[in-house]
Amino acid sequence: MASTVDSTAAPAPALDAILLLEQPFAHLPYDQLCASLRTQQRLLTRELRLAQDTCLALAGATTPRTDTATAVDMLDHSVKRLKALKRRLAQLNAQTKTTLNTAAVRYAHLQDLHTIASTADPAFDGWSKTRLNRILVDYMLRRGANSAAAHLTSSAGIPNLVDTALFAEIDKIEASLQPSAAADGGEHCARALAWCAENRPALEAVNSRLEFDLRMQVYIELARTRTPSTLREAIAYLREHLLPMQAEEEERQQETLRVQSNVPNPPSEDHLGGGDGGSGASQEGSMGSEPSKRKQISRLLGLLACPPSSPAYGDLYHPDRWAILRALFRSHAFLIHSLPPQPMLHIALSAGLSSLKLPACYASEQEMVHAAEVALLDSAGAAAAVGGHTARAIQRATEVSGRGAVDVSIPEPALPPPATTTADGIASSAIATATATATAATGRIRKGNQQNPDCPICEKDGLGMLAREVPWSHHENSTIVCRLSGHVMTEDDPPLCLPNGRVYSRSALEDIAFKSADGQTVTDPRTGESFAFASLRKMYIS
Fold first, then answer.
1. Domain range summary for the chain, segments of one domain joined by +
2. Looking at the predicted structure, is the pLDDT value of residue 447 above 70?
3. Residue 461: CB partners within 8 Å, gap ≥ 6?
4. Which intervals hold domain RING-Gid-type (predicted)?
5. Three-state SS across 301-365?
6. Which of 180, 262, 303, 516 has CB atoms 3.0–4.6 Å from 521's, for a disulfide?
7. For the residues of 39-77, what is the DSSP string, one character each?
8. Cβ neighbours of residue 403 under 8 Å, at least 6 residues apart?
9. What is the pTM of this model?
10. What is the pLDDT of residues 173-211, one digit of tens each?
11. Picking from 88-92, 304-308, 358-362, which range would have the lowest pLDDT averaged per residue?
């Protein structure tokens, strides 16, 4: 027989809390579809415009029939470009179908969560395990463990639920951003620049400077070689790519200033910077903390005259710029594809550990530290008592000798009782006794440590170490879990307090009383004390 699940015994899945972390998971396929459609539109617009220009040129040509060969060559060139366009569109169409399939599978995966009525349902455990596998694969891909991620993806059967292809593309482009003495830097930045061209609308929407920084690095590598040909190539590259970017930035700034000047109620001078420097302050503020492209290009021009050994331009020639570019590209790739900068494992763990972290999880450590301090104080006190008694005896002898008494002998100092040997062969003294007393108290604390064995924060050698870095849990309403039954105590099952101060749920205590000899006695399972059920007090949750 199929086992049935009591949906009332366990709460329903918290859909809002679970789906809060699933936005990148669901949004990524649609971002990829939009990017693919933009690429198709750009290719169609460019190639069809070129073909149309060729046809118009041939239709309006007045050349004699002897130029037929030229016309045929032009048509052949257009046909080749259109065939290449067809192949490219076929590839994009296949990618689109794959992305649509991925979106459908992910939608079905999220839809399955809405059909689960209880967290006790085995289907919820299966869904949660699949989600955990997704989070682990995401962490492995971000850390470069691609083989382990591929193995887990294959064994769990979740190829459409993870972004293996996307991370492979990001890793390939990031790996190409490496310095090399045999290259001029252009070929190393080629893949990243092609990616920027493909995602230019999205990069412009976030005011990204990634493409400008990449082209700066190409120029720097050309200037680093310092041959006449590379220096001329650097000047040509600056004019072709960097100066137009500077002009575009200044044009956008001027447009922003014109829009601000046409506002019916313009901001006050305090907001604009005031006085003659208002425009300049506003212009600098619109660019953020980064220097303007004009200032950066001015410094780039100095590289034509200064070699890499020049300290004035050491930051531009420094090899660490490649590492900065790799980190910058990865952050922009995550931003464009709606991926969080941190692994989902970190986000889920920090939120979960923070919600479970309570002072009670570390109460035993605080008590142990206090017991150790007591032991040290008791030991120091015993030593001080022995030293003080000896000092007082010497002081009395000195006083008697000063008064001229006949008996000037120094009495034997009263030492503490001699050390005795226990049955275990351990010497005992006042200091040892004080230390042993504190150690015994510490042992009682350890013995009385009844932390929740199911709490991951109470596990000091596991997740408890990670939980030290997250804030404490904040609950507007207290939630108390019975240590005996493991269920949350509510109004229907309120907490009851024993005379010794320990609190359990009514249902758990009623079950203990029902199993007792007289049916009215409750025995605390933690201390062994017995009490009458009538002596229990009802507690109220605030």
1. 15-168, 169-259+288-336, 366-451, 475-542
2. no
3. none
4. 455-527
5. HHCCCCCCCCHHHHHHHCCHHHHHHHHHHHHHHHHHCCCCCCCHHHHHHHHHHHHHCCHHHHHHH
6. 516
7. HHHHHHHHHHHHHHHHHHHHHT----GGGHHHHHHHHHH
8. none
9. 0.68
10. 999 998 864 455 567 899 999 999 988 888 998 989 999
11. 358-362
**Burial class for 535, CB neighbours closer than 10 Å (0-12, 13-18, 19+):** exposed
Query: Whole-angstrom Cα distance, residue 153 to residue 197?
Result: 31
Out of 68-82, 193-207, 408-422, which region has the weakest mean confidence (pLDDT)? 408-422
Closest CA to 25 of 154, 171, 135, 165: 135
CATH number, domain 475-542? 3.30.40
The string over 300-327, giving b where at least 16 C-beta atoms fall within 10 Å of a residue's C-beta and e elsewhere, is beebeebebeeeebeebbeeebbeebbe
Pairing of strands 530-532, 521-523: antiparallel
Say how far apart CA 329 and CA 212 lie, in whole Å.
12
Tokens 């920084």 found at: 213
Q: What share of the chain is helix, strand, coil (3-state, %, to 5)?
A: 65, 5, 30
Burial of 72 (0-12, 13-18, 19+ CB in 10 A): exposed
- Read off the tokens for 67: 């130029």
Look-up: residue for tokens 């990001």?
170
